[in-house]
Amino acid sequence: MEVVHHAASDFTRIFEVLGYQQKKYPNAKALSEWSENSWHAYSIETIIQWVDALACWFKRTGYQRGDRIMLMPLSGSPAWMVIDFACQRCGLVTVPVHPTSRAEDLALIAAETESKLCIAATETLVATVKAACGSAMEVTHLQKEVAGYFNWQVEAPRQEELEKLLAEDSLIAETDWVTILYTSGSSGMPKGVPLTHSNIIHNIKAILPMLPLEPHHRVLSFLPFSHILERMACYGYIAFGVEVYFNTVRENLAHDFLSVRPYFCTSVPRVLEKMYDHLQAQLLTKNFIKKKLITWAFKVAVNYKVAGKIRVAYALQLWTVRLLVLRHWRKRLGGNLRYMVVGAASLRPEIARMLSAAGVQVVEGYGMTETSPLISINRFEPGLNRLGTVGMVIPGIEVRIDEPDATGAGEILVRGPNVMSGYFKRPELNAEVFTPDGWLRTGDVGLFEKHRFLKITDRKKDIFKTSAGKYIAPQPLQRHFCQSPFIQQCLILGFQKPFVTALVVPNFEVLQEWCSQQHIHWSAPEYMVHNIKVRARLQQEIDALNQLLPNYEQVKNFVVCAAEWTAERGEVTASLKPVRQNIVAAYKSEIEKLYA
Known about the structure:
The chain is α/β, with parallel strands linked by helices. It folds into three domains: 242 residues, Rossmann fold; 191 residues, ANL, N-terminal domain (Rossmann fold, 3-Layer(aba) Sandwich); 131 residues, GMP Synthetase, Chain A, domain 3 (2-Layer Sandwich), CATH 3.30.300.30. 36% of the residues lie in helices and 20% in strands. α3 links the parallel β3 and β4.
């Protein structure tokens, strides 16, 4: 399909995308949510009316321009979009926080931002916020059937209130803060990132010509609304005039794909890895024919080329596996999904190839909260999607590699209109993260392939040296070992130690199926990780993958972890990146035994 090039000059502040859609692509199904066993759609006109009414309510209630409003969503929804836009409409600054945030982090954020109000998704989260923050701010929720509900669908404002709202519209500048997002990355210490209208608008206008979307295409939104990637994507969706369907219950994601039949979505690697691992678990089936067929389908799919000519023999194989296997996999995603953008972490190339072979074109992008978030992205046009890279730098910003080594790799520096002005109330951090001439240090190590495709090789702070003097880049090694269908998560260790070791979280679905085949009694994971046969099976996987590495990078010993790392325990971020220091602290005694 030809990429449609949209004009993008009719909005300079984020909330103006609402009027932009109303004028250019009026959509009767702008935003939809699943409720009472059906999809409920709201037109762009209805959304605008709700936004204006809620903005007037905020002003009537006494909230002033610049006041901070904390938001704690579980997922995206029309309600959160309306609240977000209403805050923008009257100059309030939203402070989204993850529902899995630790109590000490919530207390720090509430105190640092001096938030006047917190709107949480549920009554349970209200109790969480109050326990962490005390009575410093009013706390309410969006759970309709429970007392204390925040009614975001307020009654229509008086005419004079609307006129005043419009008259004060010019007071909201492009350089005003829209939101303060707290990010800890892999360091664990929250720091506020204030972003302006112009920061985020630059990203929206940069992606409009790139995405193969047209008005009334269906998209499914399922990433956390507290994450800048999904918020920016949703603003862009409105500018496109597409129909946005929100997955509000994670357990319903498979159902939502089937019922919405989306054309496009954004995702993070972990979601796709879980799907891929589930498919690989089918290889352990006792059905010999099915096992052979799926094995062959994987082999054909992972050799798929996203660019260049396809040989006739391979084309015939691809047609066959699409007919017999891949089309059934695609049906699980609704059967209509054509395009997907993946961000927040590196995607294993074999997963991108498999999806592309199934008819879902996957492109990777790269960014960070501090850059609103997009820095680079592969393109959907032929020849402009290079697997294993995060694509070409978006228009209007600069990227350079600082102090490159012999391979061309060095720290990635960014400069441009999408970059934050500095961390909130943390001048000491600004001196560290910005160079004297205004470049933002991303902390990521990368290089350019073919002079234009950016490739991330590691996280600068994660790279360590063993006591033998060898430098280890853990992220590529972690991705390498997670290729095994038996390994779900992995953390590489070895700082100032004589050799490399790892913490390994098994794929318990695959492991349980294997145990069933081997007639090994399955019990709770905390017991199974100590089973001698289970340990030996994981050792086989690691030994096989070790053979593909130089000796100094090979994992010499490992701990089998009994539970998946979660954001609730602070072991991964909201975008599912491992928080190294927290995981290492949790397994301190086990790690010490690896080197005893």
